Structure of Glutaryl-CoA dehydrogenase:
Amino acid sequence: MPTASAASKVAGSKPLPPPNSDFYEVYETLSADELATVKRVRAFMETKVAPVITDFWVKDAFPFELLPAIKELGVGGLAMQGYGCAGGSLALLGFVQMELARVDPSIATFIGVHVGLAMGSIYIDGSEEQKQKWLPQMARFEKIGCFGLTEPLVGSGASGGLLTTAKREGDTWTLNGEKRWIGNAPWCDVSIIWARDIADNQVKGFIVENKSTPGFSVEKIENKIALKVVQNGHITLKDVRVPETNRLQSGNSFRDTAKVLKMTRYAVAWMATGCAMGAYEAALKYSQERLQFGKPIASFQLVQDLLAKMIANITASQCLIVRQAQLHAEGKLTDAHAALAKAFATAKCRETVAWARELMGGNGIVADYKAARFFADCEALYSYEGTYQMQNLIIGKAVTGIGAFA
């Protein structure tokens, strides 16, 4: 393929501008310290992850050799205060997730599951003793966690239909059931398992120490077409005994689970926006370098129309999620706010990555050109943390005052 400079010469003008998906300069809403953190994450993703991630994606493999460098980023426990966590604002967490996904949504998901879901469950629903025991080592990535809510037969209906059960016998709980699509599960150290207490029919959370717990087994899910770097597992729990000290002491109903999910839906909106940014930047660079009829395809009206629509989607999503962070800082963020952000950003991401793939023509289906990876990965972002339709029902209840859930 011709270089960007060669394309510029053909275009007969000054050097072409580099791809930039921050059209409304939303990064300028960060403080200097926050921006330094985001730039550190961007440098890591561009220099360490970008050169190797396509090979791992094609192979369905996780780049374990990158874990030491990920630990050094200092993003374990972002937006969590104390307990050895990175702290900072929820806005900073969002921008970091966006930067991660801009290069690879799988790495963003790995960190999102570990920090947002696993650590988040302990931070929000755990006792002081549990926070002191688990969060520092998880913030240092010495213990990696996963979050077991979804089941083979229960997805959107988790609030009232979990089939995994918990039975208390003295100071011990016995868990039985299955969990599916659990990111990090095949190799992580700690699993947060949500189960229905047969005594009161309420959903409760448990910390399961995977490697040392009899009856706990995990099978890796094979042949995925999206987020292939993330290792998803099918967990089986057969008479798994968990001490009362490992029950999340403030996780006593699905309302408590939902507190965690509100924060992770918030993060998925940022990740989806980052995914769209990565696809757009790859497509823009391609359009500047790809020559047809003796000139860059970026000079064609229909290509510019696609690029304009893509950056509009990204900018709208960025503005929405930045405002979402402001609402959280003001103590005003609701479940419906988070649902709207997740639904809108993932839908616009889906549209944007499709245009990126389209712009590249046949090359758009080859993983080496990046757009194909973003195109596939977006499908998982669109579905997990609650489907588009479920988010819309949360929004619908908020605006009408009438619940339409089955």
User: Anything to note?
Assistant: Residues 346 and 382 are 5 Å apart (CA to CA). The first strand starts at residue 145 and ends at 148. The chain has 13 helices and nine strands.
